[in-house]
């Protein structure tokens, strides 16, 4: 009988990554970005572990995520990156959920100051936040809504050789200066921003990907540990003769006789179909290539080099042997996408 693929989630690795990011950040408070179910890792696992490690401030994208998070961290500060409308103010107040205000109009909504909001100023990403051509109106607005945090977001922090981050920091500095004594505690850095150094840390940093073991720069893991070990089981073994094809569309033609393992894992579990004929899995310390297409519930792997593999064997899909960034590169995407795609059907084991 075969079992569902599983995620083994390491408390020790998560704490180590938090402590590492915290120590990189000097005096700044180290918060955590745990939107999208903690990047797919699971907010029920991540939030309590981070709270115990000393994290006191959390960021999510939506009010619904914040309300769900509240039960795991009753005393934390929780900010909602996308904000929410006045119709939600009562429920937010009751659960002490703070909006991030991204437009100037939101700063003037009556009663918003009671929510202890953050304000997001755009400094060059041009995606979210009060645009630069309105920064001359910030002082009035800030004296009205008394924000608890001033934040902005870096567009290219993962490319330190580019001048963009410094330009954004200069804009951020001028906003801070224009607010003078009214300037609230400030926050600019995500994971990659933390690694840019002291000047980017301000009062609070808000890493995400580094906590989960991904690196903003895939060529350098920066010592973050794999929080997620993803495993799946060998369901069947076959001998495939030279010239025979494997899987949908027969995309793989065996160049010689091979031993083929079929593994219970597919794109329904979040294993990207782009890894067809490209991905690798780790079996007994050896990397074995995926041959043929990734299907909904199955992948097929060439295990010719391993004589001893049997049905029921658990293999590593992702973990300390095959990093999330290695997989991402092969799939022509980023670690963030690989993590947030992790499927809901899998068994999840906390260790
Ligand atoms: C997701 C997010 C972060 C965290 O970014 P990482 O690159 O995962 O560290 C920080 N700030 C904002 C505004 C975000 O949306």
Keywords:
single chain; 351 residues; alpha/beta; TIM Barrel; 2 domains; 7-stranded parallel beta sheet; 6-stranded mixed beta sheet; 19 strands; binds pyridoxal-5'-phosphate
General description of the model:
The chain is an alpha/beta fold and 351 residues long. It folds into two domains: 11-212, Alanine racemase (TIM Barrel); 228-322, Lyase, Ornithine Decarboxylase, Chain A, domain 1 (Beta Barrel), CATH 2.40.37.10. It is 25% helix and 22% strand. The protein contains eleven helices and 19 strands. The chain has a seven-stranded parallel β-sheet with strand order 3-4-5-6-7-8-9. Strands 1, 11, 14, 17, 18 and 19 form a six-stranded mixed β-sheet that branches. It is elongated, with a radius of gyration of 23 Å. The model has no long low-confidence stretch (mean pLDDT 96).
Give the topology, please.
Elements (H helix, E strand, L loop, with lengths): L5 E4 L1 H14 L4 E2 L1 E2 L1 H5 L3 H10 L4 E4 L2 H8 L6 E4 L8 H6 L2 E5 L2 H4 L10 E3 L17 H8 L3 E3 L12 H16 L6 E2 L3 H4 L9 E2 L22 E13 L4 E2 L5 E2 L4 E7 L15 E4 L2 E4 L8 E5 L11 E5 L5 H7 L4 H6 L6 E4 L1
Parallel strand pairs: 1-19, 2-10, 3-4, 4-5, 5-6, 6-7, 7-8, 8-9
Antiparallel strand pairs: 1-11, 11-14, 11-18, 12-13, 14-17, 15-16
Bound molecules: pyridoxal-5'-phosphate.
Helix content: 25-40%
Overall strand count:
19
- Helical element count? 11
Radius of gyration from CA coordinates = 23 Å
Q: Output the CATH class name of the largest domain.
A: Alpha Beta
Describe the strand arrangement of the main beta sheet, using strand numbers.
3-4-5-6-7-8-9
> Which stretches of 5+ consecutive residues score pLDDT under 50?
none
User: Major β-sheet, in short?
Assistant: 7 strands, parallel
Shape annotation: elongated
Into how many domains do the coordinates divide?
Answer: 2
Q: Give helix and strand order, one letter per element, not per position.
A: EHEEHHEHEHEHEHEHEHEEEEEEEEEHHE
Could you tell me the strand content as a percent range?
15-25%
* Corresponding CATH architecture of the largest domain: Alpha-Beta Barrel
Annotated CATH homologous superfamily of the largest domain? Alanine racemase
- Mean of pLDDT: 96
- Secondary-structure-based class equals alpha/beta
User: Termini, distance in Å?
Assistant: 24 Å
Subunit organisation of the chains: single chain
Unique ligands: pyridoxal-5'-phosphate
CATH topology of the largest domain: TIM Barrel
């Amino acid at each position: 009988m075969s079992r569902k693929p599983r995620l083994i989630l390491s408390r020790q690795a998560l704490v180590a990554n938090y402590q590492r990011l915290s120590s990189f950040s000097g005096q700044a408070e180290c918060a955590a970005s745990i939107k999208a179910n903690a990047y797919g890792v699971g907010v029920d696992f991540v939030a309590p572990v981070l709270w115990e490690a000393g994290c006191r401030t959390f960021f999510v994208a939506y009010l619904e995520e914040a309300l769900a998070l509240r039960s795991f961290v009753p005393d934390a500060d929780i900010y909602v990156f996308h904000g929410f409308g006045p119709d939600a103010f009562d429920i937010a107040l009751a659960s002490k959920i703070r909006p991030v205000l991204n437009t100037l109009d939101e700063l003037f909504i009556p009663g918003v100051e009671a929510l202890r909001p953050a304000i997001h100023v755009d400094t060059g990403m041009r995606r979210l936040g009060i645009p630069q051509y309105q920064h001359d109106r910030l002082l009035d607005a800030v004296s009205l809504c008394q924000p608890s945090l001033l934040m902005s977001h870096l567009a290219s922090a993962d490319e330190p050789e580019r001048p963009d981050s410094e330009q954004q920091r200069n804009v951020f500095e001028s906003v801070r200066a224009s607010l003078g004594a009214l300037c609230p505690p400030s926050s600019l850095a995500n994971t990659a921003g933390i690694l840019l150094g002291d000047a980017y840390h301000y009062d609070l940093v808000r890493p995400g990907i580094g906590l989960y073991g991904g690196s903003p720069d895939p060529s350098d893991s920066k010592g973050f540990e794999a929080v997620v070990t993803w495993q799946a089981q060998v369901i069947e073994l076959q001998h495939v003769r030279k010239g025979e094809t494997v899987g949908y569309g027969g995309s793989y033609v065996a160049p010689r006789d091979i031993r083929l393992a079929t593994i219970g894992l597919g794109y329904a579990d979040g294993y990207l179909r782009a890894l067809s004929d490209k991905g690798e899995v780790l079996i007994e310390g050896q990397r074995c290539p995926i041959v043929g297409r990734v299907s909904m519930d199955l992948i097929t792997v060439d295990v010719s080099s391993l004589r001893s593999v049997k049905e029921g064997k658990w293999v590593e899909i992702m973990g300390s042997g095959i990093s999330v960034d290695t997989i991402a590169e092969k799939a022509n995407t980023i670690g963030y996408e690989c993590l947030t795609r992790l499927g809901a059907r899998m068994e999840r084991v906390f260790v």
